[in-house]
Amino acid sequence: MNAELVVQLCYLAASILFILGLQGLGSPERARRGVLLAEIGMVLAVAGTLLRHEVITYQWIIAGALIGAAVGTWISLKIPMTMMPERIAFSHAFGGLAVALVGISEYWHLREIGEQMNTLQMTATGLEVLLGAVTFTGSLVAFGKLQGFLSGKPVTFKGQNFFNLVLAVVAVALVLWLVFNPTAFAAFCVLACLALVIGVSLVMPIGGADMPVVICLLNSYAGLAAAATGFSLRNNVLIICGALDGGSGFILGMMMSKAMNRSFSNVLFGAFGSATTTTVAGELPGRAPNQASVEDAVEVLRAARTVIVVPGYGMAVSQAQHAVHELQAALAAGGCTVKYAIHPVAGRMPGHMNVLLAEANVAYDALFDLEQINDEFAAADVALVVGANDVVNPAARTDPASPIFGMPILNADAARSCIVLKRSLNPGFAGIENGLFVSPNTMLVLGDAKKTITAFTQAIKSG
Amino acid sequence: MNAELVVQLCYLAASILFILGLQGLGSPERARRGVLLAEIGMVLAVAGTLLRHEVITYQWIIAGALIGAAVGTWISLKIPMTMMPERIAFSHAFGGLAVALVGISEYWHLREIGEQMNTLQMTATGLEVLLGAVTFTGSLVAFGKLQGFLSGKPVTFKGQNFFNLVLAVVAVALVLWLVFNPTAFAAFCVLACLALVIGVSLVMPIGGADMPVVICLLNSYAGLAAAATGFSLRNNVLIICGALDGGSGFILGMMMSKAMNRSFSNVLFGAFGSATTTTVAGELPGRAPNQASVEDAVEVLRAARTVIVVPGYGMAVSQAQHAVHELQAALAAGGCTVKYAIHPVAGRMPGHMNVLLAEANVAYDALFDLEQINDEFAAADVALVVGANDVVNPAARTDPASPIFGMPILNADAARSCIVLKRSLNPGFAGIENGLFVSPNTMLVLGDAKKTITAFTQAIKSG
Amino acid sequence: MTDLLESLVFGLYIFTLAVFVGFQVLERVPKLLHTPLMAATNAISGISLVGSMVAAGSGRGTVATVMGTVAVAAASLNVVGGFVITDRMLRMFKKREGPRK
Amino acid sequence: MTDLLESLVFGLYIFTLAVFVGFQVLERVPKLLHTPLMAATNAISGISLVGSMVAAGSGRGTVATVMGTVAVAAASLNVVGGFVITDRMLRMFKKREGPRK
Ligand SMILES: NC(=O)c1ccc[n+]([C@@H]2O[C@H](COP(=O)([O-])OP(=O)(O)OC[C@H]3O[C@@H](n4cnc5c(N)ncnc54)[C@H](OP(=O)(O)O)[C@@H]3O)[C@@H](O)[C@H]2O)c1
Ligand SMILES: NC(=O)c1ccc[n+]([C@@H]2O[C@H](COP(=O)([O-])OP(=O)(O)OC[C@H]3O[C@@H](n4cnc5c(N)ncnc54)[C@H](OP(=O)(O)O)[C@@H]3O)[C@@H](O)[C@H]2O)c1
Predict the structure, then answer these.
(1) Is any Cβ of chain B less than 8 angstroms from the Cβ of D18?
(2) Whole-prediction pTM value?
């Protein structure tokens, strides 16, 4: 009994440390200490588990842990910051796999020793395997699409929604069946395989650019699966972490869909992906965009006292964050104030731009949220749009027919002049034209953002 | 089993509703709906309990509930808002009583049927009876002091701290003894009586004005006692409510002691009351206070474009809140802007001034916290100090020797002129002189605040 | 896990989590509403009613029942009184200027 | 209460309270740190390691053990990888201007 109490107290302490750790992420100063607390929590949880009397052999645990830790460390140290969305999809896949395997192995073990699960265990294990396996294949597909192994295009066929619905109903029916017939091994196997199929068929129809929302959704599923494991193993730390994890996916997904002006229930119930498929070209005033050379733009920048940089997905594509920081330094050396305006869904992941700019040593107190900075554009000399598009599209304010109408955007068009860096006249993620590019006080400098900015910096330094 | 499940789900729902209810108190718009949710939660909890199979007779429950509800409603409808501190002390006493009686009756019942408590139950019951009984008598003494039944003066004798310490040690020892000898009935009785004594001897030495901090402390004790009941009866809703209640007492106590510039650990460990006993008369510039007549003050008020009212304990004493609102209306009719500056510990209870002004129909968006309004005094024509003293004492900013040095205060002295209403030249709660009263741009109008303000209003209306 | 241990452990989990929830919720209550907050937690603390009802209504002999009944009365005084006064206070908080007398 | 019912009920309490705690904590994470947050919850979700270890280390026959071992590897990949990358990201967030290259 005493060892058992120690185990339970370890788990309790771990749960507290995880919560305190996430609380630490409430501010950048306390964030690293928070992560340290969470790490200690994880060590305690593992140590507690090693003390459990069921655990009698260690070699397989050690082997698995060493392999996992080695691969995990290697990937995490090597991966460039621009590939974070891929990395997160990838690790959701492993999270789902682990949970599903725990459920399957538990079921298998009881079957081997001739016992059967009680109602609660069977319900929890069924949901655990279902959600875990869906997360596994779903995240793999998401990863493939982001990475380019799979076509980023939505892969659809007629009746797909109906097909998915049928699969989901069958899966739930199988779980119910198992609850009343826990020994129905065949049903269990079918459930597991079906869940793998559901994961694929849920994510295949969705366009690559919509992946971030899908990933948050899968994050929530993974959390729920872990919580279900907690119910079936009567393990509270699993329930708590599952709830924290599921909640984080849910909150980030909600925030994203709000900032993208879609109803979250649409996102939850699979109606996303539509924006990519229905490309509505908003009507533009028949003006030609005002293309400008690097020299013209540099002249404007030299005269500016305040510049607001608006980074977007294009900055990530061209890895221009370091170049941007150098430009900031060059401008600041000339006495100009440089601020960054970060739209909540700029890039392809919540907080994407913040991490990239932090990587390039930009101090985070120079980064401002939409609400903080939007009124300052009117007083700014230059808004420098580095590979952003949808998040500065004035149609969101003015054109009720636009698919992004109502989405809060950065008022780059309010600045005295606006310099836009992009490679072509192609639209951005939402697939719609952008009136900002043809506005008279916009200068469009075509070309890769990194190259263009480096050229700016050189010209400003040498001049 | 099914009835049991229903009971448990009622309790779970009740817990959720209590949490949502307190969340509602996060803003005045949602507060009433929040309280409604909490009420529904309470109904569910009671309904669930009636379904429990242990509960077989209803007449005593109904009798008790009717009496309690009738008395509670009557008191709550009749009591004037100025008596809230008394009312809260009073109901803590009943909370402590209920918890202690539950523990005693549980113990008695098991003894009668010849069973004995297990370790967990006995620990929890011991703590429950201890904390409950301390809260009971402690709150009664606090009530008596606030109400004037008992002398508000600190009642002390030599060696008191040592005496209290001994009592506490004995009580804890008795609990431990009971854990190992749950059938020691005599020890149980001694524990209960001793706890009653501790409650009295803990609160007697503390001055009437320090009661609010004591009340918060007793609130925390009551919460912990309820949580202990939850452990002994294995009732989660009790544990959750106990934690919420204990947390609220703790947070309010911490906030108060911070705003009063005392360390909370001092307060927790009984070092409060000291400010009342060590009356340090701060040195004042040898100027005589600038006493003024109602007419002089009215002249200044008539000329003012912006007036900031600083209410304090004196407003509660003289029940001047309605008069203040009428003055506000009269001034506003003349085109003057009137705002209220609410210090976090003005009055004798957290939020005291807010409730009084709300009672007098003052809109809550005219009330401002210290941080919100402190910079506005410099631009105000008049600071009208209605029975406040310590919270506007500039010594807190300037005199390191003052006992309130470092406490954040309202900068009433920064206004162009300052009108102070009080009855005499006596000091306020902290017992120290106030340099504001002798400052050259202060006008001191002596007299009861309500009478003075009514005179102001009449003069302004008629003029 | 023994039964005893299990209820201790689960109780500790619930208590700890409730403390977290409580702190986070209560921290966000504005100073404006601190007095109603005190009254509302007072009402909620009347939840000991749930324990008192069992003590009063389980047919446990005179002494236990009398104590239970007194506990029921004390707890329901808090519950009902606390909610009534909280609501009475909150009704007074108004955003726009109310009618003047 | 039956054993089964009790663990269901306690589990529901813990889940519910944890959801409250989670929402309140996560709502306060600034947008600035949303990417590190995703990585950190990723690491924490590796807590399924705790279940995997039992599956891999309880001497339950080949099939169960192999599955358990794979699960341990997958979960510890998330735990270790998640914490490493979170820390790597957070180290990049600086308040004052860092040295320029
Ligand atoms: N952040 C999230 O969490 C999230 C999640 C899901 C969806 N989204 C969506 O993603 C969009 C984000 O908006 P955004 O303004 O950041 O990006 P965007 O609208 O996708 O536009 C990116 C722009 O960058 C340009 N670009 C690409 N590569 C470039 C390079 N190497 N050099 C210079 N320019 C380059 C592209 O134009 P060219 O091709 O002409 O160069 C394009 O106009 C929003 O619609 C949002 O709803 C965001
Ligand atoms: N709010 C809380 O939670 C709390 C809790 C515990 C302690 N406290 C303490 O209480 C104090 C509160 O400060 P405070 O400025 O509000 O009050 P205060 O410093 O106690 O002063 C009250 C003033 O009101 C005057 N007064 C009393 N009755 C009056 C009447 N009928 N008409 C006009 N004036 C009258 C008194 O002067 P005369 O006697 O000359 O009339 C006195 O100067 C602080 O020291 C604080 O630390 C507050």
Answers:
(1) no
(2) 0.89
